[in-house]
Write a structure and sequence with these properties.
- The protein is an alpha+beta fold and 700 residues long.
- It has 15 helices and 31 strands.
């Protein structure tokens, strides 16, 4: 940062030129002013930056402006360089690119490279050789580290050894401002560290600094410096691609051991090399992490391909026996043979569909309209042999002249897997009737069945095919309703994936968690350390990176007390064993320490999912049990006064048989008694499952 400086008596006054400013006599208008100097104009000159160059221009002042003894260009002004002198009347100012007035020995900064700081004397040649030798050894030790964390520690420890410091700090700059100590060595007391003003100055000026008298250094100040009772210090910024990410700080306790400009040059060069080595280590670690993820993904793909090949081989081996059984079934009697051949035909369809799924796993199914008449004829043909075998029959109603939307795939086979287990329960001579209805974009086929039959319980494959085809079913009052979409607009939308929340500031974790999310059929959703305001979508898991947040315990506590995450499992990764009690107390569900692998993370999320489902089932069972207990209590509490009322009404009817109102009261009593019987059924009736996994109490 450039400065303007001038003498005020025996003191050197300074002004940091952060932005364009004006120089003159008026303190209200000019950032740099001298009100008591009559030779100055009210607004004498201006200093502005054009690109990376600072320019000075005279603003038609009465006495003009001199730059190094030469008048300024009257039209465009002149460029300023380090050490230039400006004269405005009797006022002399000096322009410097760094802090002015440093003696270069007690206070120094902006030193050159090693070769520039060595004086042309024979003794200095040995100093340079010794300095290069020490720096080479330290750099070799530093480059031997491959882990970024070990590199951080090595950078500080080698710099202390190189320059014989008493203690040192390596601090990192935080995104929200301030500094965080990553590593420290030496006699470090808790609460007394290094001056924040030194760090802020180094970051602001982007230069390495030397101070052999920190308390008297004009560059620093503030409360934090008073706590720093050190003899001398060195501090240099850690930069990467022009951005300051941290700083390296060394000091000596004794005032009789000052640092030299050559020490600052060595320190500056070593920190530059360390910054590049640290960046290289972080890049290597990121590459290794990505390579490990790619290798894990390749391994999983290979395993999936092997499983798919074995699956295909198994399906191919099943095809030949099925064909032989089908050929033998042609010699069976008419009714039983037809039923067996119908089932074998369905098996062959399933086999063919499974073989095609191996080749076109993610291929979308093409949809087309299918006349209801064609669907009904196909179902009647498939169920005819089965019904004859059971000596039952089905009477189809007249189908409407309309179509349903056929999304593709073995829909008719899936319908058979849903309905035929129910038809197999029919007694001899049973007649099943059907009826077609229409409800809001769907066509409904209702099968009315006799009492005493168990409802359908389709297998997972049948459920998936029906769901993909947009077909819903409902079993109630001994009737099975099949809902078919009548067009593509009536097809249900694909249900959204549940979310996997990730709280971390390290981007290299996103690739790993993206793979885990895809394996668990989840969407990865990055989150900040502070929870977003409600309402939020439902999160199945929340993962918090212990090394990617500033306040780990506070972050977990905030999410656990957020209404959208009150019951969400919270998994903490990359934490230490010592932190786990505090994390559990803050609201974490589980944790993984540093160095976890893909399989461990995926397995831990599956365990948490199963644990959550068990908790939900236990809660639902507890609520249902409480409901049944409440129903039983209400039954007894209502029956007692109801019995008294019924008895009194009966006595009054005997005494006053002509009174009509007593008969109405008796009817109301019987109605209440029927409702009480419903409460009794609620207490005794078991639950009945539905296709979507829900359950109800079936009362009739």
């Amino acid at each position: 940062m450039p400065y303007l400086s001038w003498q005020e008596g025996n003191q050197l006054a300074r002004h940091a030129v952060h932005e364009a400013c004006q120089v003159g006599r008026d303190p209200l208008t000019c950032s740099v002013s001298h009100p008591g100097m009559a030779q100055l104009s009210r607004v004498h000159a201006s200093i502005d930056r054009i690109g990376a160059i600072w320019w000075v221009r005279d603003l038609n002042s009465a006495n003009g402006t001199l730059l190094n003894g030469v008048p300024l260009n009257p039209h465009q002004g002149n460029a300023l360089q380090d050490g230039d002198e400006l004269v405005m009347g009797d006022w002399k100012l000096t322009f410097t690119e760094g802090f002015p007035g440093l003696d270069g020995v007690t206070f120094a900064e902006r030193v050159g490279d090693l070769f520039q700081e060595v004086r042309p004397e024979p003794a200095q040649a040995m100093v340079l050789i010794r300095g290069i030798e020490l720096m080479q050894r330290s750099t070799e030790k530093l480059l031997a580290q491959v882990d970024s964390e070990a590199m951080v520690k090595g950078l500080l420890e080698e710099s202390l050894r190189l320059l014989h410091g008493d203690r040192g700090f390596l601090v990192l700059k935080q995104k929200e401002g301030g500094w965080r100590t990553a590593h420290r060595v030496g006699d470090v007391q808790e609460g007394i560290g290094l001056s924040r003003t030194v760090l802020d100055y180094v970051a602001q000026e982007r230069t390495a600094v030397l101070s052999n008298q920190p308390l008297a250094d004009p560059r620093f100040g503030g409360v934090s410096l008073v706590e720093l009772h050190r003899g001398s210090l060195l501090c240099a910024p850690i930069t990467d691609e022009g951005e300051i990410h941290g700083a390296l700080y060394l000091d000596r306790e004794s005032e009789g051991r000052p640092f030299s400009r050559f020490d600052l040059a060595i320190f500056q060069a070593f920190v530059r090399l360390g910054s590049m080595a640290l960046r290289q280590a972080m890049l290597n670690q990121r590459v290794l992490s990505q390579a490990e993820q790619q290798g894990e993904l390749l391994r999983l793909r290979t395993e999936c391909q092997r499983a798919a090949d074995r699956h295909g081989q198994l399906l191919a081996a099943m095809a030949a026996p099925l064909r032989r059984v089908n050929s033998w079934a042609t010699e069976l009697p008419d009714v039983s043979g037809a039923a067996i051949r119908s089932q074998l035909e369905q098996l062959m369809t399933l086999l063919d569909h499974g073989s095609r799924e191996e080749q076109l796993e993610d291929a979308p199914m093409a949809g087309h309209p299918l006349p209801i008449l064609a669907l009904q004829e196909d179902l009647a043909r498939r169920w005819d042999s089965l019904l004859k075998f059971r000596k039952a029959q089905i009477r189809f109603s007249e189908p409407p002249t309309a179509s349903i939307w056929m999304s593709g795939g073995p829909l008719v086979v899936a319908l058979a897997g849903l309905v035929e287990p129910v038809l197999m329960q029919l007694a001899e001579g049973t007649v099943v009737t059907t009826r077609w209805d229409q409800e809001r974009g769907t066509r409904v086929l209702r099968l009315s069945l006799p009492t005493g039959l168990q409802g359908p319980a389709p297998d997972p494959w049948t459920q998936r095919v029906l769901q993909d085809a947009g077909v819903r079913w409902h079993w109630a009052d001994q009737a099975l309703d099949l809902f078919f979409p009548d067009g593509p607009d009536a097809m249900p939308e694909e249900p959204p994936r549940p979310l996997l929340g990730l709280v971390s500031e390290e981007l290299n974790l996103l690739g790993l968690f993206q793979t885990v999310a895809e394996a668990g059929n989840l969407w990865l959703h990055p989150l900040e350390q502070d929870p977003p305001p409600p309402p939020l979508p439902k999160f199945r898991f929340l993962v918090v990176d212990a090394r990617g947040v500033r306040d780990l315990k506070g972050c977990i506590w905030a999410y656990r007390h957020h209404p959208s995450f009150a019951t969400t499992p919270i998994l903490v990764v990359r934490c230490t064993e010592d932190e786990t009690p505090q994390l559990i107390e803050a609201g974490a569900t589980d944790w993984l320490t540093e160095g976890f692998r893909w399989e461990a993370l995926h397995h831990r999320l599956q365990v948490l999912r199963g644990h959550t489902e068990l908790q939900q089932r236990a809660l639902a069972a507890e609520r249902l049990d409480s409901f049944r207990q409440m129903a039983g209590t209400l039954k007894h509490e209502i029956n007692n006064p109801l019995a008294i009322i019924s008895m009194q009404v009966e006595m009054l009817q005997r005494k006053y048989p002509e009174e009509v109102k007593l008969a109405k009261i008796g009817d109301m009593v019987e109605r209440i008694r029927a409702l009480v019987q419903v409460l009794q059924k609620m207490r005794e009736t078991p639950t009945e499952g539905y296709a979507d996994g829900s359950s109800i109490l079936k009362l009739g």
